[in-house]
Design goal:
With about 425 residues, the chain is an alpha+beta fold. It has 16 helices and 15 strands. It starts with a strand and ends with a strand. This is Peptidase.
Length: about 425
């Protein structure tokens, strides 16, 4: 194994790639009692169009297929993986994002057994027409439940505005119609294409012995046979007319007492490769914290004027193939909320260029956050970036933050923020509400 050391942090990561292509990262924490393990595949809801290497035929899969596949992998012919984890004292879960699907467990006992359960259920698909039909009803209920959630509708509506006609415009779970189109064959085809070990990574952190844990993993994988890896050509399937278009605004009457407003900025600039891309993401997070974090002067003024309140939030999203930032909040003054925030964002470079002192304080705070996160096993494992940022981990963020300068933040803002890339989505109270 390769040992990657971070002397200033007193941390190290042990990394290797198995013969079957599975990438393994191990982080020993002998002073912890818990172990957290997560295996991920580079396949998410945005991967709806692809070509196989031996054909030019474009394969299109129904929206929500990645999420559906995540659900179905837990169910086997004679058992459910959740039950096995529970029997051996572990908590388990899974999630699907736009670009990856992850399966995880945490435990304080039976680490070997739980690790093998994780590897075995993810690497042994079992789908039947009956079980798939049953799952369609369950996921349809989930989709309908989210349709009644105001905050989710606000976020989903904004993303659809930012990426009209593209796979991102669909809910990660898909639609009821698209889910009903998923077949057993679709699931097996997608599994064979995207769940090969060479497209996956395993991250283990906590009370583990590196040599022993790697031996367990190797023995488990040696018992299995895998077909040759398929490297699909991913296609975004976008509507070319809408490829560079953003829907500037949209309103929806909804069952809310106060207006909910979301403002988004879509990045049209190219994301830097490798760890430079992570540095770019950190710069976006830092510049918008300076601009609209709770301690910023402009946020305090908006708060004191009653334009924003404690519901205000923002997030930076950077994934394979796209990046955007969104802001949202409940407000009694939606028109002023939109006008004030839009103007502030568009003039970010003018606002930030004099904030030398504030920048240094914010950078120290961000570094402090990363140091605190190093005490949380889940944060260490889930902030592993995989191939997106050249296998960067949480431990890489601190030196990258130290490199940041105010000048770099201003350059990043100038590249990222643009009027054509902005959109507003608003949920308005229904008149009878």
């Amino acid at each position: 194994m390769k040992k990657i050391e971070y002397p200033l942090l007193g941390e190290c990561v042990y990394r290797t790639v198995l013969k079957n292509g599975l990438k393994v990262n191990l982080v020993p924490r002998p002073n912890f009692h818990k172990v957290y393990g997560i295996i991920s595949t580079d396949f998410g809801s945005n991967d709806t169009h692809f070509c196989l290497p031996d054909t030019q035929e474009v394969r299109k899969v129904p929206a929500g297929s990645a999420h559906f596949l995540e659900h179905k992998l837990f169910e086997k012919k004679d058992h459910d993986a959740f039950e096995l984890f529970g029997h051996f004292g572990a908590d388990a879960n899974a999630f699907t994002s736009y670009t990856k699907t992850s399966f995880l467990f945490s435990t304080t006992t039976n680490v070997k057994e739980n690790l093998e359960i994780l590897l075995d259920f993810v690497q042994s698909p079992y789908f039947t027409a009956k079980s798939v039909a049953k799952e369609k009803g369950i996921i349809a209920q989930e989709i309908n439940m989210y349709a009644d959630d105001a905050d989710w509708r606000l976020y989903a509506g904004l993303v659809k505005n930012l990426y009209p006609g593209q796979p991102l415009s669909y809910d990660i779970a898909g639609t009821v119609d698209s889910v009903n189109q998923i077949s057993v064959k679709d699931l097996y085809d997608l599994y064979q294409t995207f769940y090969h070990p060479s497209n996956m990574d395993l991250f283990m952190v906590g009370a583990i012995d590196v040599t022993e844990t790697l031996e367990w993993i190797n023995k488990n994988q040696a018992k299995k046979e895998f077909a040759p890896a398929i490297v699909p050509q991913r296609l975004d399937g976008r509507n070319e007319v809408a490829a560079k278009a953003v829907n500037p605004e949209q309103q929806l009457a909804f069952s809310v007492k106060r207006a909910k407003v979301a403002i988004g900025i879509r990045g049209f600039d190219r994301l830097p490769a490798g760890k430079a891309g992570l540095k770019y993401k950190l710069a976006l997070q830092l510049l918008f914290y300076l601009l609209l974090g709770e301690s910023s002067q402009d946020y305090q003024e908006l708060y004191n004027q009653g334009i924003v309140d404690d519901s205000f939030d923002y997030s930076v999203v950077v994934e394979r193939g796209f990046h955007f930032v969104w802001f949202s909040g409940d407000t009694d003054q939606p028109a002023i909320f939109r006008a004030k925030l839009t103007s502030l964002i568009l003039h970010a470079t003018s606002v930030l260029k004099t904030q030398t002192v504030e920048f240094q304080l914010a950078k120290k705070e961000f570094i402090g956050r990363q140091i605190r996160a190093m005490n949380v096993l889940e944060a260490i494992a889930e902030q592993y970036e995989g191939s997106l940022f050249d296998d960067a981990t949480l431990f890489d963020k601190i030196p990258l933050l130290q490199e940041l300068t105010l000048e770099y933040l201003l350059e990043t803002a100038a590249k990222f923020i643009s009027q054509p890339g902005m959109s507003v989505y608003e949920l308005c109270p229904k008149e009878d509400d």
